[in-house]
Structure formats: structure tokens, C-alpha cells
Amino acid sequence: MGARVIQLAEIRARRSAQTPVVALDSPSELNDRFHFWSGASGRRYVHSVYDLLDCPEVPAANFLLVRRDGSGRRSVLAIGHLTHDAGSLNLAEIRHRGARLGANEVHVHLLAPSAQQRRIVELDLRAGQIDCGANEERFSGTRH
After folding, report:
1. Around Cβ 78, how many Cβ atoms within 10 Å?
2. How confident is the model over 54-96, as pLDDT tens digits?
3. Which is the most buried residue in 45, 59, 119, 121, by most CB within 10 A?
4. Is position 133 within any domain?
5. Quick check: is 21 in a domain?
6. Residue 89, class by beta-carbon neighbours within 10 Å (0-12 exposed, 13-18 middle, 19+ buried)?
7. Residue ranges of the alpha helices (H) in the chain?
């Protein structure tokens, strides 16, 4: 059996020199890729942000259809949850509804583990948007 001396300072230096997993060109790029939406409960939900036409197939998840104007201001047009097992069907639903409402962004929350939790997140986000003085008539969502 042999022994080996490990220099902790060298290991720490190597770890700190490693490139992060996600390299972003600028801090604003982080704002373009992720967005937090708050529910009425005060919980904040992180969403991945996609252009409506560049959105990939999505598993069962929560979504917001958003219209982002030239100044960067976001308006929520619809809040819902996806229920299909096939990601392509979910994507088709998102694109159809988004195009019909005039959305140009899709915000997807993937962290709700069950259908019941997705419904809770949806209702929390809806109530949070209405409480913020948003126009209630603009909201629509899945009724499954």
C-alpha cells in the first residue's frame, strides 16, 4: 500500500481556473435566457425563455405566452400547463396559441414534478399576474 501527498492549494487553484458549465457572453444574455415570474403566493418560478419560432419540443410543463416589445417590456398573454406525453404535441399547442395571441416569446417552467403541481403553479402565476394590475381579459389558459 502506497501513500500519496495531496496539495490542497493546487486542487483549489485548478478548480477555480475551470470554465463554468454555462458560459455567457454578457449579463444581459442571462436575462434573455431565463426569467423569474412571481405568483400570488410570493413564490418565484424560473422560466426558460424561447423565441416562439425557436422553441424546442417541450415535455409536460408550465408555460407563459409573452409579447415582448422593442423596449424589452414583457406582457403576459396566456398562462397554462401542457399535458401531452409527446413533446411535439405540446410544441404544436404552444405555437398555435402563441401565433393566435400575437406572442413572440414562450417562457417554460420545467420544475413542477406532477400534473397536480403544474396546475398549482399555473393558478399561482395567474393570480399573481392579476394582482399586479394586469388586464384580466388578456389571460387565457388550458382548461384540462
Report:
1. 20
2. 999 999 999 999 999 999 899 999 999 999 999 999 999 999 9
3. 121
4. yes
5. no
6. middle
7. 8-17, 27-33, 87-101, 115-131
Interacting residues of 80 by C-beta distance below 8 A, sequence separation 6+: 62, 63, 97, 122, 140, 141, 142
Q: What residue numbers bound the domain in which 123 lies?
A: 29-138
pTM equals 0.71
Backbone angles phi, psi at 76, to 5 degrees: -80, 125
Distances (CA, A) of 124 to 21, 41, 44, 85: 32, 6, 10, 23
Q: What are the tens digits of pLDDT across the range 6-55? A: 666 666 666 555 544 445 555 555 567 999 999 999 999 999 999 999 99
Place of cell 449579463: 27
The b-or-e profile of 97-131 (16+ CB within 10 A means b, else e) is bbeeeebbbbbbbeebeeeeebbbbbbbbbebbee
Domain count, the chain: 1
Burial of 79 (0-12, 13-18, 19+ CB in 10 A): buried
> Is 103 part of a structural domain of the chain?
yes
